[in-house]
Every structure is written in C-alpha cells, then in structure tokens.
Write a structure and sequence with these properties.
The complex is a heterodimer of chains A (203) and B (386). By secondary structure, chain A is an alpha+beta fold. Chain A has helices spanning 8-32, 52-59, 87-97, 105-130, 186-202; strands spanning 37-39, 43-48, 66-75, 79-86, 135-137, 141-145, 161-171, 174-184. Helix content of chain B is 48%, strand content 19%. By secondary structure, chain B is α+β, with helices and mostly antiparallel strands. Chain B has a 5-stranded antiparallel β-sheet. In chain B, strands 7-9-10-12-11 form a 5-stranded mixed β-sheet. In chain B, strands 6-8 form a two-stranded antiparallel ribbon. The chains are: A alpha+beta (203), B alpha+beta (386).
C-alpha cells in the first residue's frame, strides 16, 4: 500500500540503522569466518514485490544456476529473508570456508544455508535489537534454480514491499557477491515506519 | 517461583538435548539421546563428541557454535541438506530410505561467558522419508508427462496418417466411376476405329464424355484440396453447410456400398448457425459416418442406412449420426472414446478415430459427444453450446 512506503528521511534512517547493525555484526562475522571475510556496508533499496524479479535479472547478468535460500522471520518485525547467490560464488564460498578445494553440492548447500543464517542474524537480528523488538528465525531452506528466469514469483505474491539489502562478502581479494532480500508484509512496514519515526523525532 | 524439577522437562522432552562447549566437550546428554544412541550420559559427559562421532566435521561444527555465540542467535543443521550430525541407527526395519535417523538441529547460545551452547536434536526421519517419497513421485510424474507428450505426438501423427488413408479411400471411390467411363469410352473409340465404324459425330460425343469425366476428376481434387488446406478460424458457422460438406466427401463411398443416407426432418435444407471453429465438425462427421459404414459392411446388414439429424433447442444444437448396424456392446460403450481402443481388425483400425472426434468436440468445440444404442443400432450425438 502506498502509505506504507518509506519517505526519504525514513529511508536514510533505515540505511543508518542497517549500517550500525552491520558494524556491530562485522566483528562477529570476522570471528565466525576466521577474519578472512569482511562484509561491505550494504546498499538499501525499496521495491514493490512485483518489480523484484526484473531487478534481480538486471543485477545479475551471469544467467548462472542460483542458490535461493529462504528463512522465515517471526516476531514483531516478521517476514521472510531470501538470500541469492550464484553457483560460482557459492562454490568459492564453500571451498574457502571448508578449506577444501573439492566440495560437493551437499557441502555447498550447507554453507549457503549457514551464510544466510549468519547474514539474517547479523542484519535483522541486530537491527531488531536496535529497534528494541524481538525476532526469531526458522531454519533456512534451499532451492536451486537453473537461472533467475526460474525465480518463482508465487513465493513473493503475499508480500507487498521488498527491502533489498545488497551486500558483498569479501574474502581477501576474492569477491563473493550475494544479495539478501527482506520480504515484508504491510503490518511489518507499518511497525518499521513507526519505529523509524520515533527515532527521527528523538534525534 | 523456582522450578526445582526443571530437569524432568529436559529428560522427558521428545527431542535430544545436548549442552556442549566451544571445544566440543559434552556437558549434558538427555535420556532421549541415551535411549536412541545407546550411549549413556555418564559415559559421554566431559568427553569430546568427536570421540563418539568421529565423522563430524569439526571446523563446520565449531563455526556454527561460534555463530550462535557471536551473534547471540540460532544456528542450524538442516535435515534436507546435510548428513545426520549424530549417527543413530534407525530402529525401524520398515524404513526403506534411511539407515540413520534424519535430524534437524538447532544450536542456541546457553552461556556466552563459558562459551556453551545448547543443541536441540529433532528426529525428522518420517518427514524426510515423506519428502523423499514425494520427490520420487514427482520424478515419476514428470517422466509420465514426457511419455504422454511423446505418445500424444505419435498419436497425432498416426491420426494424420489414418485421415490421409481415409481421404485417399474416398478419392478412390469418387474417381472409380469417371475413370471407368474414360476407360470404356477410350476402348470403345479404339474398337470402333479398328472396325472402321467410327463416324465423326460419335467421336466428338465420346471425346466430350471423356472431357466431362476429366473435369469431374479435377473438381474432386479441388473439393479435397479445399477440405485439407482450410484455415480453422473461430466464426459464425452454418452447421448444415458443414454437414453437407462432409456428406459430399463420403457419399460416393456410401453409394458404392449400397448404404442409404437419410436426412431426418429435412434438417439439411434448413440453416443452423453457431459460433465455433469452422471446418472441424466435418472432420468429426466424416469419421462417424465412416465408422458407421464399416460397421454396416462388416456385419453385412440388409438395407443399410445412416441417418443424420439436427435439433436446435435454443440453448444447444444436437447433431446425431445413427446407423442400423445393431449397436455396440454395452461393456465397451464407456471405452469407445479412449485412444487406441478398437473393435476392428488391427489392419483396419488405429483406435484413434473416435478419440480424435472426442478431443475435437470437447477441447476445440467445447461440446460433448455421447453414444447410445437405439432399436436400430448405434447413435452418436454431438451437443454444442449456443
């Protein structure tokens, strides 16, 4: 719904909060991933859910197999996180994390699931702490699709607004690009707007 | 309020519960795990889990523990994608898919200072079995769809060949008489010339006869070419005209077999209009009439006939084709529109004719087709919505 879309001030405030969350989380992520990984400050983009597929296709020209992980978020700020990473990046990620050059698809899948969970906790978990609200995560689940053209739009039809938190995980000089997409329902956006307004009024 | 017997909850819950530190030393192992793994709590506590389960990938497990502690959040082992963390043999001998219990595990921070996490172990074997069975069924279904598509294509090609065969048969019937006239006339002219009894007026008359016959042959070709090459567009169609078109093609063959074509209630002289895909109804009628013809000739019916009728009840148009060949057996009536179903000898029928009729009527013309036995024989009725 139109009134649920964030205005410029609210969007800036959201970007700032996500930056703080990432800042707090980056130390933890370095600890978890043995220091060789850093997380770039994410870019925030707000979209209508129907625009999502076109956005994803325009953003990834590789036309590669994609690992699509979804993770349900429960609590006041409920919704669903979707993490997308192409096959090439997913294999690189698994080879580095498992310190093994010969990883199989099961191991890659597990690593992608794990990274999604880390990113969810690092972003939404920390972010909800800042908003003084509680969230919990369901175990993530994975789907492998032939290309972004096969991205199932039905899965997002229940959501109106999409917040894209586009981030790059850097492993030394190796870029592993992944995109975290937060699908939110109207009531969560409403709640988010209220919280952002409170912060804007305070400062 | 203090819950002194909180341990009862941990020991009776229907999940495995493990407390473990970041160096993988076990601090708590509940009864659920004791009974399923056969490892007693006293034997495993204060020992590394790797001593008992050496197949665990140490770096992955430690990383997950770190995640839970560093982010003060949950970490997971998913049953769908990973092998079970704790290998526990399945007690059920009926399980077809898994030798070991399928697990999903949630890791939550327990004591951040002492670097301890809690593992909740869920037995997901049943769910995993169902998923696997579902996956198998989906694969079988997908395979079946591919097979059906191939079968459909094959069926379409076969039906085209069968229709072509029917067409050639009908052309042959229509050509037989004029060819016979041409042959007889030409032989007569040659004979008269040899006997020197051919005068000019007879020659011209005979040549005109030959010319007439060749023109008829040419017209037959035009009629058939017109029937084969037509565009099938959706428009208002004169149904009587479509039926007459079908009759034009099969009539010579019916006459050859001495079959009378009866038009009920002078239906074909009236005009019945309906909005539908044109040129598909004649295809169906030719098939139905040919079927009736074959039944009549096969059973050698005395005074054979085929009756055509149209009834318009303002909501529907009913077109019927009835014969006096005695009807079809009750036990095969339900199967008559199924593909590859035939009562004819293999060399004569593909079993596709009536199935193609059924598909044209139901899928393309959005109508219905049924069969009933009357006192005389079989009666096919096509019902079209107006």
């Amino acid at each position: 719904m139109l009134e649920n879309i964030l205005n410029e001030d609210e969007k800036d405030c959201l970007q700032e909060l996500i930056n703080i969350s990432y800042g707090t989380a980056s130390a933890s992520i370095s600890e978890i991933l043995d220091s060789f990984a850093t997380l770039k400050v994410p870019r925030i983009k707000l979209l209508k859910s129907l625009q999502l597929k076109d956005y994803l296709i325009n953003n990834d020209s590789s036309n590669d197999i994609q690992f699509v992980v979804s993770q349900i978020i429960h609590g006041n700020f409920s919704g669903e996180n979707i993490f997308l990473i192409n096959k090439d990046s997913a294999f690189k990620l698994a080879e580095i994390l498992n310190e093994d050059e010969d990883v199989n698809i099961e191991e890659v899948s597990d690593v992608v699931l794990e990274i999604t969970n880390i990113l969810s906790s690092a972003t939404i978990g920390k972010f909800s702490e800042l908003l003084d609200t509680k969230v919990s995560f369901q175990a993530p689940s994975l789907e492998i699709i032939d290309s972004l053209e096969d991205f199932n739009e039905n899965r997002i039809k229940d959501f109106n607004e999409v917040i894209i938190i586009s981030t790059i995980l850097e492993f030394d000089k190796l870029n592993v690009k992944g995109e975290l997409i937060l699908l939110t329902k109207d009531e969560s956006i409403k709640k988010l707007k209220e919280e952002l307004q409170k912060i804007l009024e305070e400062y | 309020m203090k819950f002194e017997n909180i341990n009862i909850l941990l020991e009776t819950i229907d999940n495995g519960i493990i407390l473990i530190d970041e160096n993988l030393n076990i601090l708590f192992w509940n009864i659920w795990l004791e009974t399923r793994s056969g490892i007693k709590s006293n034997d495993i506590i204060n020992k590394s889990i790797l001593e008992f389960f050496p197949e665990i990938k140490e770096n992955v497990f430690k990383r997950k523990i770190k995640t839970a502690l560093a982010l003060n959040s949950t970490a997971f082992y998913n049953a769908e994608n990973t092998k079970p963390l704790i290998k526990i043999k399945q007690p059920r001998v009926t399980s077809k898919f898994f030798e070991f219990m399928q697990q999903s595990i949630t890791i939550v921070p327990y004591d951040q200072e002492k670097r301890i996490v809690c593992l909740y172990v869920y037995d997901n074997t049943r769910l995993s079995e169902q998923n696997k069975r579902l996956k198998q069924l989906t694969e079988e279904l997908e395979e079946q769809i591919v097979q059906n598509k191939t079968k459909d294509r094959l069926m379409y090609e076969q039906s085209k060949m069968a229709a072509l065969g029917d067409m050639i048969h009908n052309i042959a019937h229509q050509w037989r008489q004029p060819l016979s006239i041409i042959s007889t006339t030409a032989t007569g002219v040659a004979f008269q010339k040899k006997m020197d009894i051919l005068d000019d007026s007879q020659l011209i008359e005979n040549m005109e006869n030959i010319n007439k016959s060749t023109q008829y042959l040419s017209k037959v070709i035009d009629t058939f070419r017109g029937f084969v090459d037509r565009n099938k567009e959706y428009k208002v169609v004169n149904i009587s005209k479509e039926i007459l078109e079908a009759i034009d093609i099969v009539k010579p063959s019916l006459m050859y077999h001495g079959i009378e074509l009866i038009e009920e209630n002078e239906c074909l002289s009236k005009n019945y209009y309906n909005e539908m895909t044109c040129h598909e109804l004649p295809e169906v009628l030719i098939n139905l009439i040919n079927n009736a013809k074959e039944a009549l000739t096969f059973k050698d019916i005395k005074k054979p006939w085929i009756k055509i009728d149209i009834i318009d009840d303002k909501k529907h148009i009913f077109i019927s084709v009835e014969d006096n060949a005695g009807g079809v057996k009750e036990n095969i009536k339900d199967k008559i529109f199924e593909p590859y179903f035939t009562t004819k000898h293999k060399s004569k029928g593909t079993g596709l004719g009536l199935h193609i009729c059924y598909r044209i009527i139901t899928e393309s013309l959005n109508g219905k087709i049924s069969i009933e036995n009357t006192l005389n024989g079989a009666k096919f009725t096509i019902k079209l919505e107006k």
